[in-house]
Please model this.
Amino acid sequence: MRATFEAELNFLKDELLLLGNLVEQQIIDSVDAFKKRDANASRAVIEKDLKVNTKRFAIEEQVLITIATQQPMAHDLRLLASILEIAGELERIGDYAKGIGTINIRMGEQELIVPLIKIPVMAEKCARMLREAINAFVNEDLDRAKLIPLEDDEVDKLYNEVYHTLLKLVVKDENSIERISWILWVAHNLERVADRVTNICERTIFTVTGELKEIRSSDQ
Model:
């Protein structure tokens, strides 16, 4: 029985890694398409979201079946509950990438009002944070899970820099508000991705220690 249970847990971890890879690529592709103003690439990002949703629901179904048939306790139950939660977090992160793709399409033929410099950096940081957070969960790396949220401060700093840069443009030209809003929404979506990654790290800590609390930079 235990061998079967371990096999089911390993399968679920592998599926979570695959889902994480899908979403990570969505983030990178969505911002790359926005930077290049490539509507077709954005449509591909949006279409990929269906695959993300399908895998998320398949993971949830398997988790519930495992709980019902194996009746796990203590650490194993926390692990399964966390997989359930993290799959949901990944699906929501995919929604942020889809949102960026939607923004790019809605812009039509409008050109970007400023070159994208900090936003691609935000995307790279978010993607790396996500990858490391999923790996930390699968490996139950408590130390790494506690450190990754510190990088959220870097993403917040970049977001604030983008915000203030765009605010200055609004002051100079009120007619640019719409085009500025598009970029600001993209930056906001990425900032939210980093917040979701922090949630994943909280679940890793919960799985290992049984303690579920919000991670703040001041706690590190």
